[in-house]
């Protein structure tokens, strides 16, 4: 476990070893961005709840038709059931089917992933959101925030049980002058990818590729070439790439070209 102090809370990182034995590092999302995302999601739920209640009052409660009198209790029960499913399922369904993001998390550019760096699953989303009830004790997510503050990877209780962590994607959205120059160069020499090859790229593949591109400047030359070779070998096999010689000669350049070519369809808000 890494040594840390509370003043370093905003700079924590998590090391992840992929199934291909490639070590990646993610910046974990701190309390500030997570709290902001929670406020956005809570505000959305509040507006939806108020809208549903107002519409229900206008359509059902404020009408005096005699045939509605016997159905009002049943209608109220259905309303309460709908609101329960809406509020309980909002975080679960969005995180499960929107690759670890809610509306608030997407706006704050943070995402829930599993401890192995892969996207969150249906089961892990269900577990981490079930434990929101415990994290919220006694109120305002106090217990969850307390645990997250002192955990070296910013995990709340739900994350500890589900084996998940929340990571920041801000760094992947920033582009240095050097990266812009590499993009311009790469876009001039596009890889001849057909539809079948594009469809072969999964969310795990894109996450691995984009994380390497974001972190490559912090790697030594030897480590960069070693990691690029391992990652490029994975894509060569997956894409059934025939030009092995050029990839083996310049694996980082191959990955750079592949990244810029796939970025539009895989960047935040794109393919999921």
TrEMBL record:
Q: What's a GO cellular component annotated to this UniProt protein?
A: membrane
Question: Which residues span the membrane?
Answer: 43-62, 74-98
Q: Which Pfam families match?
A: RDD
Give the source's domain of life in one word: Bacteria
Q: Where can this protein be found?
A: Membrane
The membrane topology term of the UniProt record is: Multi-pass membrane protein
Signal sequence span is none
Tell me the ranges covered by the RDD domain, including all copies. 28-163
Q: Cite the InterPro entries for this sequence.
A: RDD
Keyword Transmembrane helix applies: yes
Query: Which keywords describe this protein according to UniProt?
Result: Membrane, Transmembrane, Transmembrane helix
For this entry, the protein name equals: Membrane protein
Please report the organism this UniProt entry assigns to the protein: Brevibacillus panacihumi W25
């Amino acid at each position: 476990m890494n040594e840390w102090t509370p003043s370093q809370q905003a700079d924590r990182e998590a090391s992840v070893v992929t199934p291909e034995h490639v070590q990646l590092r993610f910046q974990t999302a701190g309390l500030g961005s997570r709290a902001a995302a929670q406020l956005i999601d809570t505000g959305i739920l509040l507006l939806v709840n108020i809208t549903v209640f107002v519409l229900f009052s206008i359509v059902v409660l404020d009408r005096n038709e005699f045939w509605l009198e016997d159905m009002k209790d049943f209608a109220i029960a259905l309303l309460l059931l709908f609101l329960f499913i809406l509020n309980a399922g909002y975080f679960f369904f969005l995180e499960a089917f929107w690759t670890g993001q809610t509306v608030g998390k997407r706006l704050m550019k943070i995402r829930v992933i599993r401890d192995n760096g892969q996207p969150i699953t249906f089961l892990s989303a269900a577990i981490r959101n079930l434990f929101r009830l415990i994290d919220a004790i006694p109120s305002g997510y106090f217990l969850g925030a307390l645990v997250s503050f002192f955990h070296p990877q910013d995990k709340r209780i739900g994350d500890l049980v589900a084996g998940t962590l929340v990571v920041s994607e801000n760094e992947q959205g920033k582009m240095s002058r050097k990266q812009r120059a590499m993009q311009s160069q790469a876009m001039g020499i596009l890889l001849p990818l057909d539809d079948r090859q594009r469809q072969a790229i999964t969310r795990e593949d894109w996450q691995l590729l984009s994380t390497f591109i974001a972190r490559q400047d912090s790697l030594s030359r030897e480590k960069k070439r070693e990691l690029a070779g391992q990652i490029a070998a994975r894509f060569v096999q997956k894409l059934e790439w025939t030009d092995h010689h050029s990839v083996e000669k310049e694996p980082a350049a191959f990955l750079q070209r592949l990244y810029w070519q796939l970025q539009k369809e895989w960047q935040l808000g794109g393919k999921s």
